[in-house]
Inverse folding.
């Protein structure tokens, strides 16, 4: 009986890692990624396109060992769009 309980316990313990290779959910909205999906901001920096004066802010976020990069595209100091993706 002890062996049976031990086998059941170990199988349940090890089966929790079966889905660990799947990236956590995310969308193209940084605030929702933080609030709803549990992502955390690790780094942020700006890039400048000198030809047309547009800026791109690159935000690096992490969750459960996974990383996504989000690009915030500014046109005339207003956000035009946000795109997130896993590298």
């Amino acid at each position: 009986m002890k062996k049976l309980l031990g086998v059941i316990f170990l199988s349940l313990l090890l089966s929790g890692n079966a889905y660990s290779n799947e990236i956590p959910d995310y969308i193209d909205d940084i605030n929702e990624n933080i609030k709803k999906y549990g992502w955390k901001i690790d780094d942020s920096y700006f890039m400048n396109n000198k030809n047309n004066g547009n800026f791109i802010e690159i935000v690096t976020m992490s969750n459960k060992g996974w990383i996504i990069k989000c690009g915030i595209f500014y046109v005339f100091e207003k956000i035009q769009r946000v795109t997130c993706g896993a590298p």
